[in-house]
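--- STAGE predict ---
source: upstream dedup step, 1 unique chain passed
mode: sequence only
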Amino acid sequence: MKTSFLRWAIERGEFDDRFSMLYGNKTLMRQKSRYISALDRFSVKYGDGKVDNDVHIFSVPGRSEICGNHTDHNGGLVIGCAVDVDLILVASPIAERKINIMSEGFGFVSFDIDEAMKTPPEKFTTAALAAGVCAGFTDRGCSVGGFNAYITSNVKRGSGLSSSAAFEAAVGTALNFYYNENRLDAVEIAKISQYAEIEYFGKTCGLMDQAICSIGGLVMIDFKNEAAPKIEKLDVDFSELGISMCITDTGGDHSDLSDDYSAIPSEMKNVAAHFGQRILRSVDSDALVAAIPELRRETGDRAILRALHFADENIRVEELKAAMLKHDAAKFLRIILESGESSERLLQNIYSPKQIEHQGIALALEMSARLLKGKNAAWRVHGGGFAGTVQAFVPNEFVEEFRVGMEKLFGQGSCTVMQVRSSGAVMVF
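--- STAGE serialize ---
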């Protein structure tokens, strides 16, 4: 559609049903304004507001991990969901083999696709992520080509909601639509996104973030066969359990945590190597416990503790799924608390040992415990850990009290009630 027509149609309410389906009715006007603003900014960036481009708009949600903390990278089980914050990408294909992306709040990146394949952009940059997605497509024999794009996102960087995975999926979804007739499914785009993050961006990660952002909904994923993960959609509404999911951003800095993140899968795989295996999922939990004396000499104690977390966390994921399907709120909350305790005690991803003076996650967990004492609630570290966010499941009648209490400590807007979004990466227009 032409930018002028799309803008006019959104203003007139021609697509209100589409917006309501994606975002619900409560934020309808805000989302319409957001899309119109993105169209206007695209037009200014690529044509000084005078060129009426043919454009498409793609939306990719953030994600929340519910159980399965640091299990995906070793073939484990995860329950997670897409959430109702998203990245939107306004794009228009161009003949030139260049990708130009203006990201609201983060500036402009531009690179020649062919040059980036020969000499990848600097690691830990937006250009590296986009170039990595292009490389993932070409490695699969798929086509890539140029486009202009403008991005606005309320999946904040460092929020624990997978902003990088949302960005990767948006670029991948655009390339899939423009140059590959949508041949690749959501899981394949997720794999390409993971490849971009590891090989081009330079951060070790599992497949969970990219998979949930691409697929959407509330899902359980079994990563034992990472080439073909088993994905099961779960038809569960948290409101039916009488609880709301709250995510609190503690404001931590992720910029110097790559080594901390990478150490977790590495140490788990070192334990698996003792048994002649590549990933921990292939190791029997009884054999793991029996081998602790030898493992202490080979891998060190922290690796053992992290491996024990992995083994127990997979069991918890199965138990949590059963509790959710039975609408057993008490069991659900108990398992969430056990998962959080295991992350703190065994996985040890609450703060970085390099930055012991910064313990925002630990403080947020303690405040959650104090605010929710005796209230049939649960709390845990959210996502990768070390900095960023905590997750709490709060009885609906106490949500406002909890939000106010957390925002006194971490600032206005730091605590957000999240809803599950049913759709993953989609072309909206």
